[in-house]
Amino acid sequence: MSPVTEEDLVTYTWVRLRAGVEPHEVRRQLRLKGLSEPRIEELMEDAFEGRRPVGDADHLAISQTAITRRALHLPDLQKVPTTKAQVYVWRNFLVPEVCDAVVALIDQRLRESTTADAFADPKIRTSRTSDLGQLGHDLIMQLDELMAEAVGIHWSYSDITQGQRYDVDQEYKAHYDYFPPGTHEYNVFCQFLGQRTWTFMIYLNDVEEGGGTRFRRLEKTIMPEKGKAVIWNNLNPDGSVNPYTIHHGMKVRKGSKYVITKWFRERGWGPMFPAEYYTNL
User: Fold this and answer.
1) Is the pTM of this model over 0.85?
2) What is the 3-state composition of the chain as percent helix, strand, coil, each rounded to the nearest 5?
């Protein structure tokens, strides 16, 4: 077996952090490889490009700043007309060739979709999921940065990117993307990265029939179009959860539906709103 090189260690650390593996778990894995604590910290710092983790005291509260500032300058970003939630539609966010490439990656690795609540009715979510962010694929990493830049939030404030495939009669019944405060799911999944904030979803194909995303309390249904992104804030401006964001991935009636989804979080590394994302505005 070839010895582990310096480049191997740097790549190992960087890929796992970019894939959404939590920092404490990456540190544990590096310790198992026999690395000293100072060396582990050097690798982590290199992976963060010199940025250190932001603690609760330094955390910038989620506000409407990121997306509304972008919307003022991006004509393709259209706000859904409602005062009850921040929901945006961005047609042609991805070109067809990129959509096709991501669909091919999704089909390479699929598992049954799950929910955060282990005791939930399995019929709530009947699609299949691809953990794209764990592949370390260049295209997915580039998409991570593209989605982050689009909303003006640093990529480290997000979960790994997931892909989903819905076949005929498959759906994700009405649900929230945020974790309800005070629940077991909230205590488990928000311990390190905090609550989910923004959702960034992209349709990767035109669905023959069905497959819309229904925001029932907003009385709005968004239909799939290849390359179209739907972006919404799961929180209110004061940081409380917004129940008006309940949504239903409706049944596919004919054909298949492919989407990718990225969820942003309250905590990450470095500035939440990097200045370079706005330099060209």
Assistant:
1) no
2) 35, 25, 45
